[in-house]
Amino acid sequence: MLAFSALKAARSSMRLAPASLSQIARYSSATSTGDVSFLQAVEIFFDRSAKLADVHPRTLEHMKATDAVLSVTFPIELDNGKWEVIRGYRAQHSRHRAPVKGGIRFSPEVDLQEVEALASLMTFKCAVVDVPFGGAKGGICIDPKKYTKEQLERITRRYTMELCQKNFIGPGVDVPAPDVGTGPDVMSWIQDTYRQFNVTDVNAAGCVTGKPISQGGVRGRMEATGLGVYYGVREFLTYPEIQKASGLTNGLKDVKIVIQGFGNVGYWAAKFFERNGAKIIGVAEHEGGIFNAEGMSVEALLQHRKQHGTFEGFPNAEFTRDSKALLEAECDILIPAALEGQITTANADRIKAKIIGEAANGPLTPGAHDILVKKGVTVIPDLFLNAGGVTVSYFEWLKNLSHVRFGRLNKKWDEQGKQQLVELVEKEAGRVLTESERRNIIHGAEEHELVYSGLEDTMVNAARETHATALKQGVDHRTAAFLNAIHKIAAVYEGSGMLFMS
Asked: Is 418 a catalytic residue?
């Protein structure tokens, strides 16, 4: 195996200067052939699958277009007395199912094109995993690190007010969720602001997901996307065709994984991979990357970075400020879990991973995707693999509409039934179980266990559908996932009669 230091030396003659993840994040800065804007990339992938779909061209054109876009500006007074004009967006790509669903991100990179691209990806993502939502996305063009918590709250509430006034939010209309730069606090502010404008809406808690438990959130939402990534990769490794192509025939045991991005998604994906036998040998973040070919403790990495603000100095590992170099490290599985456009035609031919699992949205450009597929690399696409977040958001939305915690109505009933069965088995076997054995057998499912179970079932079924279509059509898994989504969405459009379209 090529040592990481040797890899960096080999790359040094090729790069002009070290690049951080934020500097290389956007497709629009790419100049290599095959690298296009994020929105164009989604459209290219859609068009490839649309050619194989048995769907009327009119329906395909309707499906491709964004239904509605909101662009707003509003002033915010800063603590120093000065005023700043903030720009925000919300795109509703497809309202073939209601409500539409998609995250809200806070990032200086947010623009209308990015929001439209992410919204369209959400439409197909929901269809792939059979979540009955249309796709949406929103964003505010700010760097959240430059604002205080109080300022972020004012910005969030003002943005939400615009959504309320324009009917771009509501449990039956449009349901936001966390994304890059946002989290449970922001979702709480959104929910509270919506309530002030809709005081008679008994389902107001369902206007947003990703909330704290105390505000109507669901247990398991925080780790959902990362857990979904784990479930998806684990399922793909059971398929003979994937095993043959990758040489990985023993599940995740001792599989070497590099993860780009150590935020919520990257951390939890790494956590579940490690817990189930894999070795996390590399982690990249914007300030640099850390590498150890024998594996590193995920929790120790997290604590070190919390304490020092960087991976630098982590014991028994090699640190580099050129975090993008880690993408090219020799490994079994590469998990891009940062931003879009990380693997382009400029570096795709140097990727050594056997499998790439897209935990981020759009980490591969179309040109890079083609290079990797031609090399025999299995690409597990974003519109399937990172759908764990929207799946569990769906569960949270259902919880909010039903006004009852999962398991509350049936947990004790299940335990009583199991108790009776245990007593019967003890009587027939002539052996009394220990208290620990009895407790493990009769235990009724808690909310997070039901959420995990539902997510696992969703990801496994979607993986099987995607892989079956790839084999049947003789195409890569991204094309297969888009093709499945197109057919599902078309069935809704055409089955409804498409009012005003004929």
From this structure: no
